[in-house]
Amino acid sequence: MIHQAIASATEPEEMPQDDAGFLAVVRAFFDQALTPELRQAGRETLGVHSDIEACKVWHRRLFERGWIAPAWPAEFGGTGWSARQRFLFDRECARQDAPVLFIGGIRSLGPLLIEQGTPEQRVRFLTPMLSGRDLWCQGFSEPGAGSDLAAISTRAVRDGDSYLVNGSKIWTTGAHHANWMFAIVRTDDSGKRQQGLTFLLIDMTSPGLSVKPIIGLAGDHEFNQVFFDDVRVPVAQRIGAENDGWTMAKRLMQLARSNNTPAALVGRVLRRTAEAALAAGDQIEPSVRTRLAELMIALEAFEQLELSGFADGSMRPGDQALPSMLKLTGSELHQQVAELAMEIAGPQAAATLEAIGLAGAELDDGAKASAKHLCVRAATIYSGTSETQRNVIAHQILANR
Ligand SMILES: Cc1cc2nc3c(=O)[nH]c(=O)nc-3n(C[C@H](O)[C@H](O)[C@H](O)COP(=O)(O)OP(=O)(O)OC[C@H]3O[C@@H](n4cnc5c(N)ncnc54)[C@H](O)[C@@H]3O)c2cc1C
Description:
Elements (H helix, E strand, L loop, with lengths): L1 H6 L11 H15 L2 H8 L8 H14 L17 H13 L8 H13 L2 H13 L4 E4 L15 E5 L2 E9 L9 E7 L10 E7 L5 E7 L5 E14 L3 E2 L5 H13 L5 H18 L5 H28 L7 H25 L1 H5 L13 H12 L9 H14 L2
Helix pairs in contact: 2-5, 3-4, 5-9, 5-10, 6-7, 6-8, 8-11, 9-10, 9-11, 10-11, 11-13, 11-14
Bound molecules: flavin-adenine dinucleotide.
């Protein structure tokens, strides 16, 4: 019943099973729905998502078509596509310069709610998440808790049917766009640190909650610090049991890491870089050609790894290593491509560096390469640093010996 209530907004459509037929349907839709303005916004993406207004328009169009959450189970609003079809769809979005969506909710919280939420929570939160009415930000990191996430000190104290939350979250991507936050907060500090955390869904319009911008290296406003001053959160907005937030957060991060820097995104940046190399013609060093070829090979290997994750591995609760491998490989490859683009831009990038930081300024190609390079530095930090991912992978290897 509840599943039907959610699915009714986006009944899965029958799609051709062969690649060519599937892509023909996707392309026909893109031809009419993906306007030049949206493609432009996709091309201009510097950080983790495109211009937010373009994101909202594209989100809505995909929702109306029933294609906003291909990875979700069909009964909850997913598409019912095979792993290969999801992979082809992502790649086509990137090849056609679709906006990079602001969909942390759909990517990570949605699957967690489907697994761990109560039926009432699913009904309340999944459809607005799919439609784009609700945009979600992630409130995990704090000034004193990043890689060592168990150090969280933002406190929630039970007061009747609510918690009163006090403290602060930092580096919160899109807190200025989101109307909801999923967060972990401290509810107990008597035992092991991990055992005193609770997972809450917090309305960003709650009295006592404030958002302060943090400006990134490239002059962009993408993340924030969020302050809580006696913010009241109903107990009904808790996922899992009180003090079981660590289990919820670990599972959520596992779901999010599996597709944080997808191959499609890396492919999009590599294509741009190859175009820049072509435009530079004779002026590029022969070594650039070699590195382009090496990156292309690495991308092909990454695509295969991702496809295997889509097929079975990335959503299995016990498998910690594969999501970390995908996040690590994708983010480091992304940086290597951005570095090569910077090199191709050469003196033009250096000369225009000072244009960066002027919010809304028209950047030329050199400045764009510089700005992109600076933004992508963050890719090996957010959603767990590369060192953290290597620790997870090594831990699994050693545990299995
Ligand atoms: C662009 C961007 C967006 C972000 N968005 C969000 C968001 O939306 N929500 C959110 O909650 N957080 C967000 N973050 C925060 C991000 O998750 C943290 O920055 C990250 O977990 C690292 O924590 P930290 O910055 O405190 O660094 P630290 O944990 O202090 O790490 C500093 C350095 O020490 C290394 N290190 C730490 N511990 C170990 C160890 N045990 N072994 C080896 N090396 C170690 C790290 O790898 C790193 O190089 C974002 C960060 C960035 C850059």
